[in-house]
Design brief:
Length: 388
């Protein structure tokens, strides 16, 4: 068995048996009445788990129940916790000596979401990623690849979730060579655009596929610089893959549409559009959402999504924009099983996507309002100012 797909055991099998069963489902996009029943039972277990260990969550359960979203299920309690809550509060449901990993969401300054993971929680989330990559055929232990990572080069004190995730993704195919775009200087990170260009030129002359991971703005900035320098388009080896995440926060004035972005990648690097995938995720909710070949963010079996009215928090029907509400019972370390993101999105039924998957999918429309909080992407994007 691939080690990334190996079994992981919940902290208390007697109390969390349905959570275990749900997270053990191997098909990342399974649907049906059985999956829905199992999801509801797992949510009941994780709610009880947190209520017994977190006074904060126990108090939430005593308040007036939220209006259930049809896409999540009638009778499934999902007390609404805004993601921003974790920027100001540390709320754990496990003893601190059981914290296996501590990650943050922000860059060099600004308020940070402090998220704490026990071994089950982070390993379970990693297994979800592995199953989705396996679903798309992206786990290739016998085929080395070259990596270009548009994320932060690891440093001893670095706890950013984006850096952790991108480096984990490198485990799915052995690395022939790895280049980091955001180089550690000893006192911070700097964007090395010329190092990225040199790496792409070198990789284009080799026979190994290339995997480009990380922030989309940095990749696009690299393509712009290559064009400005009069470089001829490159043709990266067959099987190359682009998996991006983190958005364009801080540089929305330079953001282009996704179709235009993918076309630029195809033109400058020779990677077909179906191999350029966006993702969505956060340190507050580590369930992975990965685009299908038609570029829809389908909801995997281990989670459910809804969209809520920004004014009333009532669930909205398919197609209407509102706050993205993500729910999953996998997390046992922090009561973050029901998080209202700061992102505006619209939700759509599976049949509106031409791909074979039948789960709901969502489109992220942008951040809600203007916040003083800075995400990883904001901090990273600030490095680009003055470079073009």
């Amino acid at each position: 068995m691939n080690p990334h797909l190996a079994p992981v055991e919940v902290p208390d099998p007697a109390a969390l048996g349905q959570v275990q069963h749900l997270c053990d489902l191997a098909d990342p996009y399974a649907t049906g009445a059985d999956a829905d029943t199992l999801f509801a039972a797992a949510m009941a277990e994780t709610n009880a788990w947190h209520a017994a260990r977190s006074p904060f969550f126990a108090a939430l359960l005593q308040e007036q129940p939220e209006i259930p979203a049809p896409t999540i299920g009638d009778g499934v309690r999902t007390p609404l916790v805004p993601a921003a809550f974790f920027k100001r509060h540390e709320v754990l449901s496990v003893p601190r000596d059981e914290v296996f990993l501590h990650l943050t969401s922000s860059g060099t300054t600004g308020q940070k979401s402090q998220m704490f993971f026990d071994r089950w929680t982070i390993r379970s989330a990693q297994r979800m990623v592995a199953r989705i990559f396996d679903h798309y055929g992206w786990i290739t232990p016998d085929r080395p690849v070259n990596y270009l990572l548009y994320s932060y080069e690891p440093a001893p004190s670095l706890k950013l979730g984006t850096s952790f995730t991108d480096n984990y993704l490198c485990d799915f195919a052995p690395a022939r060579h790895t280049t980091h775009a955001l180089r550690h200087t000893g006192s911070g990170h700097e964007f090395d655009v010329h190092g990225c260009i040199a790496a792409l030129q070198r990789y284009a002359d080799e026979d190994a596929p290339v995997r480009i991971l990380g922030f989309p703005a940095f990749l696009y900035f690299t393509l712009e610089r290559m064009k400005a320098m009069g470089m001829a388009p490159l043709r990266l080896p067959e099987g190359s893959l682009v998996v991006l995440g983190g958005g364009w926060k801080g540089h929305t004035d330079r953001q282009i549409g996704k179709d235009e972005f993918r076309a630029a990648v195809t033109e400058r690097l020779g990677i077909p559009a179906e191999s350029v995938r966006d993702t969505f995720g956060s340190v507050e909710h580590c369930v992975p959402y990965v685009e299908c070949a038609h570029h829809r963010l389908h909801v995997p079996v281990w989670s459910r999504a809804a969209v809520r009215d920004p004014g009333t928090l009532r669930p909205l029907p398919y197609g209407e924009p509102g706050f993205l509400h993500l729910v999953s019972p996998y997390i046992t370390s922090v009561p973050a099983q029901s998080v209202v993101m700061g992102d505006l999105a619209s939700l759509h039924p599976g049949e509106e996507c031409p791909c074979p998957l039948s789960t709901d999918w969502f489109t992220v429309l942008g951040r809600a309002g203007v916040s003083r909080n800075r995400s990883c992407a904001v901090a990273a994007a600030e490095m680009m100012k003055g470079m073009s």
